[in-house]
Amino acid sequence: MLKELKILKHHGKQYISDLRRQKISPLFRGRPVISESISEEEIRSAAAVCPVRAVDKSSGSIDLGKCVFCKECAFLLPGKIEFTNDYHIASNDRNSLIIKPGDHNLIKLDEKKVRQEVRDLFKGALKLRQVSAGGDNSCEMELAASGNVNFDMGRYGIEFVASPRHADGVVITGPISENMSRALEITYDAIPEPRIIILAGTDAISGGIFAGSTALDRSFLEKHHIDLYVPGNPAHPLTFINGIMDLLGIKK
Amino acid sequence: MKNNQEYFIIKNNSSSADLEDIPVMDYVSFREKIISALNEENKHCISYYSVPSEDYLRLICCIADDSDKSIEIFSCKSGKDIKLIESAASLSPQVHIFEREIHENTGIVFTGHPWLKPVRFSHSRADKSKTVDGYPFYSIHSEELHEVGVGPVHAGVIEPGHFRFICNGEKVHHLEIQLGYQHRGVEELFLSKQDALQWCILSESIAGDTSVGHSLAHSQLIESLSGMEVSEGLQIERCIALELERVAVHIGDTAALCGDVAYQLGQVVCEALRTVVINTTQLWCGNRFGKGLIRPGGSNYPLNEEIAQAIYDTAGIVEERFGEIADCIYSTPSVLARFDEIGIVTKKQAHAIGTVGPSARTCGIERDIRRSHPFQYFRNYIVDPVILESGDILARGMLRSLEVQGSIKIIRDLLKIWSESKRNEEKPVYNYRLKPDSFSLALVEGWRGEICHSAMTDKNGKISHYKVKDPSFHNWMALALAVRNQEISDFPVCNKSFNLSYCGHDL
Questions:
Q1: Which chain A residues touch B294 with a CB distance below 8 Å?
Q2: Domains in chain B, start-ordered, CATH in brackets?
Q3: Number of C-alpha atoms within 13 angstroms, CB side, residue B467?
């Protein structure tokens, strides 16, 4: 008993009290900033180095739905492209994940696109079923960590549940392998309406490095409305939780 | 490196071989060679696969000799029209999974194979009429028995796979594990991409929980195929990153084991400690899983004094706090009752199926690539592998806590050597040229066990074949054996005690 008490004392207080403003490592690769003065040639070289065509070769914008956050474009063009450690990069609007040169604005949710019923019903409690469809287990581990003693999203009534019957939505990770596509559809169908879909991680949003692989079947995404995109490789727990808080309209 | 008529010998983390030097034999001698080599206790199969070609079929087998740091490579060529060959698995069970894979990819039937079933329903499989929904499960017709199917979607936030149990009441007679749901076409993408950076990103995503292990294996392979040398300082940094990954996952696994037996204190304390470790990796390279840290030829995130100090401090925190909670976990009767003598894999079984990593080391088998086929700075720094004998959940749990201690010592020692070593701070190299018509392989001891990447180049120095083997490829069978004659309620904790990779297996 005394041993346990000593351990508890050393364990101390672990939870992050303010998930909105938690400090994170300066090197964390979050929202990029692209200089307005980036030249056409520099854009071409950044697009050429990008392993996933996230850098648009004509406009120079970076699409965070495709980006694997390897930062190689920033290593190539220091001063022109920078990855800030801003982890508030989730949105319900696919287009707002595209960062243009000169863009310093924070990534925001499009309030008009949030379905009212989602806020009315799930603001107090949101139960989610996670489906990994070719995920590499880093995103899955980060989602599991979102509920751990540090991030504790359970404080807002947000948690993962075992059965889709108990869930209000699905969180998809991975590029959606062909072999998992049917199981994903079945799981989604088992969730009672209204229900939401969240794509966590770059692989889920665009296929990431796996985009174009013949072993994928991403047709599920064409059939359904996506409520939240959570970029990252993997999506950081802070990105995920803040994204959901924004979606549900939880201020703090 | 020496040549021999029967096989070509290569060392881990060394230069490549000319394709011509790999001996080619007929299938009968090839099969005999596999069986006779694997009869020796100190040898095990690290990779065995088919290389497709327009005119013929080539099989390549790589067998590691753990006693003298060598790896034997030999091959077999046969006409495309051959459809039946005799299985070696009936006499050397550990090649069972490799033969299944070759069968799935080429359609060749291994006669006498005890279990010639699909492995992952890869997109490029020979028989497209076989689909992931039509797996041929073993079944026993009996009024006393019932079957339990679990998955592919599991209760927790984990990857998909299907488990089919045949039970008598609560007792499991047989478990069959069907995988393949995670198949993304990794090996095909290595061929279609032909871009150095894309390969790096791909290797980090083979199994995201082993990003450092797999990306290190890839970089090692590329460095040996291109003849690139890296500085001692960088080798030390890579070893530190690999050990940090091991510490983080072993602690996370301990949390999961505690969670499954409702020992909450162990779970929450270990979860919090894992966070400390992966946040240290994030401090170093901006990613909690070490993505971006390992690159061929150099590093974008060279270690500096400040980060070295942070790693040193983390080692101290982990040593103290993980030490005290591990003491507590492994002296709590309610925990021990769920771990002790549950889910046993015997040494004989472990040898037969060729299991690797912690799953072998908990069955009394010394199999640790850091020691037997050292790579990077482990060629200069001798690792003493932890070996336990009992093969049960308790051993797999205890091994983790002993390996955490071991890795902390390694990290501290390496940090000290690093601080005195000459540092070049080399940048990553992406414009390398691979030697034409060559073969090489790279072995890394990841936290799950040995990772093997091997590749061949064509006459223009392009990669013509790329093979990835995650340790899980061997070890899933160990889980299936471990749960025999156990209560089905012990399955989850048994499963956690192995924590195998689905995506690493499915590729």
A1: none
A2: 1-119 (3.30.460.80), 208-466 (1.10.645.10)
A3: 27
